[in-house]
User: Fold this.
Amino acid sequence: MSILVTGGAGFIGSNFVIDWIAATGEPVINLDKLTYAGNPGNLRTLDGDARHRFVRGDIRDCALVAGLLAEHRPRAIVHFAAESHVDRSIHGPAEFIATNVDGTFALLEAARSHWEGLEGQARERLRFLHVSTDEVYGSLAPGDPPFREADAYRPNSPYSASKAASDHLVRAWHHTYGLPTLTTNCSNNYGPFQFPEKLIPLVIGNALSGAPLPIYGDGLNVRDWLYVGDHCAAIRTVLERGRPGGTWNIGGWNEMANLDVVRSICRLLDEMHPGSPVVPHEKLIHFVKDRPGHDRRYAIDAHRIERELGWKPAESFESGIRRTVRWYLDHQDWVSEVSSGAYRAWIEKNYGAR
Ligand code: NAD
Ligand code: DAU
Assistant:
């Protein structure tokens, strides 16, 4: 038996592939286009491991995906591949529609055609797990209850609109064709191998080099933070026990304002890296022009996955962020590798005029 993972060289995908092989020993076919966000270096610990087969390619390449399904007959497709950064979706939404909408459509069609040709147990056990986001539910006001699975979709950014569209396609492929889909909507992940365009690794990297820590708007936007290892465990649980057609919200029960997240990183760096060019690191905090259409608050009600499938997060924000800061301090070579010329061009594009 094996599974097909898409986007397994990205942040969550690579954590998932490593976690999956360690936890189950089951082989993974890893299909990834290697965009700027995909990094085979994340999977270096699997070099030479026959349980990991990496294939460079696009999820929209129907012939490639059909060939992989026919050759390996995986028991599940776990779909992470996406354009994932909200700020990039504001600067250039086309790639988001191409990968997140067209790509998911192409993958669903390949999975459907494969599944329809299967018989018996192989057909019974196939699952298509679609990894999505809490951003599809829109923005909450301070006193609103957290997002639940039955809430209406109100996406506000090109990124979240493209993810919402992909969720609707997955729903329709189950409802109309009976494809055994599972959908997860999770909150902000953090942990090892996160590309430094996202808030937490960006702040750690900037603080270590004495650069300003850019806070959009007033810094009081709220996110729920989920340690990536907890997310990987949740996906394994949904795959194992989730009923086809179901959707599950996954969250860390850690709602925090951005400013508090940044301050806690600064305090940890003061303690764990006292040799930094600027201590206390909070002196580097710098308020900049807000993100257009910036959602004010996300919060996840993760009771369904706990009640139905028995999953809850193991890490608190305090334990998870400490592990994360430690990882970035110990992997400065990884950070330098991904902070290439293209990354610097992005930083100039997003922050230069703020
Ligand atoms: P990421 O940007 O780090 O990685 C995305 C991966 O997909 C990269 O390896 C990239 O090369 C690959 N990819 C992109 N386009 C592709 C294509 N057309 N064909 C094949 N591969 C392609 O993303 P991430 O943060 O790891 O997110 C993974 C998934 O989880 C995404 O679907 C995202 O929407 C979702 N999600 C992420 C978060 C988060 O906090 N990071 C939270 C909720 C949901
Ligand atoms: O909620 C889940 C989503 O979380 C995922 O679906 C997305 O793929 C993922 O990128 C993330 O989206 P966010 O926009 O919330 O993440 P980001 O790290 O970009 O920003 C987190 C918060 O920090 C957000 O309120 C914007 C703010 N921010 C971000 C950056 C990069 C800043 O204040 N300054 C910054 O420089």
Remarks:
- The chain has one domain: 3-348.
- The chain is about 45% helix and 15% strand.
- The first strand starts at residue 3 and ends at 6.
